[in-house]
Write a structure and sequence with these properties.
mainly beta, Metal Binding Protein, Guanine Nucleotide Exchange Factor, Chain A, 7-stranded antiparallel β-sheet, 3-stranded antiparallel β-sheet, 0% helix
Length: 114
């Protein structure tokens, strides 16, 4: 891990919702803290309903984590564009987030501890 980033098991059970639907629930989530940014909860892919997600061509590169791939959330009421990201091949220092997804919390998308 880099000095800039810490990754720890997220305490308790976490749920992600979008458009009123539960997309996943996990007691195996990870909490990533990067610098002084708010913590981000990463969910294991196998704890999410991947049928809700549609891969997009959008990519972003983080100097500390590597290249992020994005997904849109397809809900009954709307599509949340590029609302989910994953590091498919993260840098070695943050390798534990491989296979995990994180969410842009926004109107209609919530990540909560239950």
């Amino acid at each position: 891990m880099t000095k800039h980033i810490t990754i720890t098991p997220a305490v308790g059970t976490w749920v992600v919702r979008a458009g009123g639907a539960v997309l996943g629930e996990s007691s195996r989530a990870l909490e990533l803290v990067e610098g002084d940014l708010p913590p981000i909860i990463y969910f294991p892919r196998e704890d999410l309903g991947m049928a809700f997600f549609d891969a997009t061509d959008h990519k972003e590169t983080c100097p500390h984590k590597g290249e992020a791939s994005y997904f849109s959330i397809m809900s009954k009421s709307r599509t949340y564009e590029n609302a989910v990201w994953s590091y498919e091949s993260p840098k070695e220092e943050v390798a534990e987030i491989k296979g995990y997804l994180a969410f842009h919390v926004q109107d209609g998308v919530a990540v909560e501890q239950v």
